[in-house]
Design goal:
Length: about 130
């Protein structure tokens, strides 16, 4: 299967298989990082809502974070109220890591109450600047 070229395609794959998040997102990020001239077009199409608050907020955070990190226009769809959580979410059950994640989380995730490490979308193909 080809790597997704947009965040909207990542969500389309998740609709078919909720367990596909890591594989689909990794493929998308590899494409995103290796195609700098296409980056804006890769985050602009509005992904469908999945109906899972954590996944919907995560996709919003990814879109906003990539825009901020790579000096792109932040897509309007990232501001949908469904793209924000009402209770904090930590992707780890390790209590002692939570203060570190609160401190390190990038703005796009922190404002959605998703607490992750400082570079949550790191990939081997990610440019250094």
């Amino acid at each position: 299967m080809n790597r997704p070229n947009t965040l909207a395609e990542v969500v389309d794959r998740l609709k078919a298989d909720k367990d596909a998040l890591h594989v689909a997102m990794a493929g998308f990020l590899d494409n995103f990082y290796t195609r700098p001239k296409q980056r804006q077009a890769m985050i602009d199409p509005q992904p469908q809502l999945l109906g899972d608050p954590i996944l919907d907020a995560t996709i919003g955070g990814v879109g906003e974070h990539l825009a901020r990190r790579w000096n792109l226009a932040i897509p309007r769809w990232t501001e949908q109220r469904e793209r924000f959580l009402k209770v904090p979410y930590f992707p780890t059950p390790l209590e002692h890591l939570k203060p570190l994640l609160i401190a390190q989380s990038p703005l796009a995730f922190r404002r959605r109450m998703i607490f992750v490490e400082h570079e949550p979308l790191r990939r081997a193909r990610m440019p250094r600047s």
